[in-house]
Fold:
Amino acid sequence: MRIVIENAKLVLPERIIDKGHLVCSDGILSDIGEGICERGFESDLRIDAQGLYVSPGFIDIHTHGAGGYDFMDNTTEAFLGAARTHARYGTTALVPTTLTTTTEELLNTFPIFEQAKRLNHDGAALLGLHLEGPYFAYNQRGAQDPKYLRNPDPDEYNAILDVGQHLIVRWSIAPELDGALELGRKLREKGILVSLGHTDALYEEVAEACKSGFSHVTHLYSCMSTITRRNAYRYAGAVEAAYALDDLSVEIIADGIHLPKSLLQFVCKFKNRDMIALCTDSMRAAGMPDGEYLLGSVAQGRKVIVEDGVAKLPDRSAFAGSVATADRLVRTMIQLAEIPLPDAVKMMTLNPARMLGIDHRKGSLEMGKDADIVLFDDDISVQATILKGNFIYSKTNYIHP
Structure:
């Protein structure tokens, strides 16, 4: 069965087609154009979008959970439940993210993730794992549990890679740590996105890291060094390196809280917009009411408080992940950063796809790519989410078959 969507505002990377159509055949985009789709079959499912925006499905490259679930729970229920929750907000693909923890707990994650990926039929696609830590700077730990922080150890990370290298798509590391550059080179050779994060690195250390495989910045501004003084001399930090080094892509938690309006606009003004991705960095409280939650696993997680639209440590000394969903990020970039809708959507679709090396099949409305689609209104309120031509969420009956 083909799906034909008509009377839609099609969001392309550089423009919007006001009254367009697209066709999904066997999970692939087979036709995109202006006006109505002239050719059809009796078996077609024809959908009148009634002027809704139709964009590529959102891709979240950094999320810890949602809907009451954290990926560190290490259960298939947690992976599937979070994936279903994110789908309600337009996410068609995501990268489950771990926290700094023991090697044993990391190793336990891999078979659970594989099983969840096989069983996942009604949630956002699970692209691969993002290991966030445990190789981080103590002074930039944020909400990461300090007792698990350590330097890269070849015996340890080789054991992790032996088990999970085919499942890991990115790894966040503080590049100034002893052994970090060697690990970066190894990960690059294996096609894993190497990201600098939770780092006290100076500009020069970041520049050296870029030569050793580091190509991305984990949640820009959050838990990273900026201009500092040492023995009266000023030094640029990781934040400045993110702007100065053109080949470094960045991700931002665009919930309007982690970065206020001024910084969102600053990023968009001084960083190439094609090198910016939006990420939720969401914890289990995304899509849930305010209250007390655990960051990390049920067994070993840290208590956090969700209030004012963000998660905080109990003493309110630091944020502890966001409770944002992808639609909120896009909405915030349009309303606060004041950038055009196509740019905001691209930061949630094509840009992260390119950073992960999957833009040949995901991230934009182009013929031959996966039929991952989201329909939303002027307020970026998601009405339907389609993954490879299958509805995984629909808010209104007139859209759902």
In short: The chain has a mean pLDDT of 95. The longest helix spans residues 103-119.
